[in-house]
Amino acid sequence: MKPLEAPSEVCSLLPSSSRVDLLERYAGWLAGPGIERGLLGPRERDRIWSRHLGNCALVEPLVAPTGSICDLGSGAGLPGVVLAIARPDQAVVLLEPLLRRSQFLAEVVDDLQLSNAEVVRARAEDYASTRPSHRTVVARAVAPLDRLVGWALPLLRPGGELLALKGTNAPSELADAGPALDRAGVLDREVIPLGRGGNVTHAVRVVSPGLDHAGPEPAAEDR
């Protein structure tokens, strides 16, 4: 797979040059098979870094430094593969129900040798029945927030966090989801602007009811 060179602002977010190499190879997957197989539109080829990988890299500093991560509705692996590259010491589940997308993710994980990433083909509701206990759930372009929280909260341990990447409508989505969050007992919620200039996105942060997010560390099996 032909790599795509990463811009300097993205390189600065990764811990080593070897991780930058992996991200560039992943960019090649998105620009090649990702578009050929319809996971991204053909017009996205010139926006792989600015609209997709750069956008996803912005959420990395918000992710807890310990505990497992679940990318809900992973699709082409955004932002889950980016986080698996940036956080090699944390387990990342790429949760995706569709076969075509799951196969693409499995090929990417195998090619990049991401030993910390696991592709799980399942709907969120079915995966929740296995009683996962993730520290962080991330999601990008999956569903409106009021529906998304219903899928995400059962995947989180108490005090875990949902980080949903949203556009400029993030504040209104959070307001619309207020009743659903109230019913679920969620008290801690906020919109966090990310980026600057032409690369601005928003993360909606929702903390699962229970232990305070800054409280006790997760059990060893959840790390």
What layout of secondary structure does this protein have?
Blueprint: H1 8-11, H2 17-36, H3 48-57, E1 69-72, H4 80-86, E2 92-95, H5 99-112, E3 117-120, H6 124-128, E4 134-140, H7 145-152, E5 156-166, H8 170-176, H9 178-183, E6 189-196, E7 199-207
Parallel strand pairs: 1-2, 1-4, 2-3, 4-5
Antiparallel strand pairs: 5-7, 6-7
Helix pairs in contact: 2-4
Describe the structure.
The protein is of the alpha/beta class and 223 residues long. It has 9 helices and 7 strands; from the N terminus they run αααβαβαβαβαβααββ. It has helices at residues 8-11, 17-36, 48-57, 80-86, 99-112, 124-128, 145-152, 170-176, 178-183, and strands at residues 69-72, 92-95, 117-120, 134-140, 156-166, 189-196, 199-207. Strands 3-2-1-4-5-7-6 form a 7-stranded mixed beta sheet, with helices on both faces. Helix 2 runs antiparallel to helix 4. The longest helix is centred in the first third of the chain and has 20 residues, at 17-36. The protein is globular. Residues 212-223 have low confidence and may be disordered.
